[in-house]
Amino acid sequence: MHAAYWIVAALLALFYVYAGGMKLLRSQERLRPMMGWVDRVPMPAVRLIGGVEVLGALGLLLPPLTGIAVWLAVVAATGFVLLQVAATALHLSRGEVRETGLNVTLVVAAAAAAWLGTSWL
Are 118 and 5 in contact (CB under 8 A)? Predict the structure, then answer.
């Protein structure tokens, strides 16, 4: 169980550090070609989402690594499930059905990480 958790959590963490870092560091103009929704959401909210993604990635990795507050890994994974459900709803509201495939994949991976993370408890 622990090996499976580390594989899923590491992949999720890599994705969210990259995606969150872009939202934190790039301008709206540079984000627009990859994320058309940034026109509809205020940039402070985009930056907040990016910060949450980076912190969530750390939450997937650091608690199990340190053995301190390991329950936070489950909370982080559950948070990613909720984040991606909201992202899916945003894409569907914009008529972007094709873009929801990644969201569904991330929901499944985050749900798996939350379930596998219970092995630390």
Answer: no
Which residues, at least 6 apart from 35, have a Cβ–Cβ distance to it below 8 Å?
A: 23
Model-wide pTM > 0.90? yes
Instruction: Check: CB of residue 49 under 8 Å from CB of residue 23.
Output: yes
Say if CB 9 and CB 61 are below 8 A apart: yes
Residues with Cβ < 8 Å from 24, sequence gap 6 or more?
Answer: 47, 50, 51, 54
Q: How many CB atoms lie within 10 A of CB 35?
A: 17
In the predicted structure, residue 121 carries a pLDDT above the cut 90: no
- Name the residue ranges covered by the structural domains of the chain: 2-120
The two structure tokens encoding residue 40:
């509809």
